[in-house]
Amino acid sequence: EVLTEDPETAFCTLANREDLKPEEGSIHHCLYQFTRNEKLTETNKLLCDVCTQRHYGPKKNVKSEKCIYTNAKKQMLISLAPPILTLHLKRFQQAGFNLRKVNRHIKFPEVIDLAPFCTAKCKNVAEGTTKVLYSLYGVVEHSGTMRSGHYTAYAKMRSMNNHLSDLVLRGQSPQALETEPVKGQWFHISDTHVQAVSASKVLSSQAYLLFYERLL
């Protein structure tokens, strides 16, 4: 879906991105890079709507008019804050003709704020909101190489999140100003072995998948 937005607000977010100053090697830095503003120039220039329709539409063979390309800006932002946030980290890189696993530790918090990565017109966020908080409840970790390895998981046993239920079942935005992680006990699961662990143990893991639930 293509929408015409006011150029002054099209790239605005719920919270100021420039105040974030994310630490390199953190999940905040990954999100910041993924949602950064990109300039489309030279071979990446865009066609206007009319030229695009003429170039790719039913009359695409018509060459009587010259297509006009123009510089543009591109930015990927979140337009709908999900009840459950799943972050999948790219844990491989190209090394010649081979793929190599990336074992670098990426820092991630128990509570993360998505507001700096949400468009100012985010659909299911109340007007005037400057925080969109999520609490960590699950982590998937992989040990080994690209050819073989073992998956384990960390999961938090916690009480039911009524605000999340309202959001999922009735589409209602949570109203309570919860800013702390959901209380509960963390467990490490490896096949049939389950062991209680501390939050610090979880936060030091080599995360491959991160699962967060929305607080507000």
From TrEMBL:
Residues 1-215 form the USP domain. It comes from Probosciger aterrimus (Palm cockatoo). InterPro entries: Papain-like_cys_pep_sf, Peptidase_C19, Peptidase_C19_UCH, USP, USP_CS. It comes from the Eukaryota. This is UBP16 hydrolase. Keywords: Hydrolase. One of its GO terms (molecular function) is cysteine-type deubiquitinase activity. PANTHER family: UBIQUITIN CARBOXYL-TERMINAL HYDROLASE. One of its GO terms (cellular component) is cytosol. One of its GO terms (biological process) is protein deubiquitination. Pfam families: UCH (PF00443).
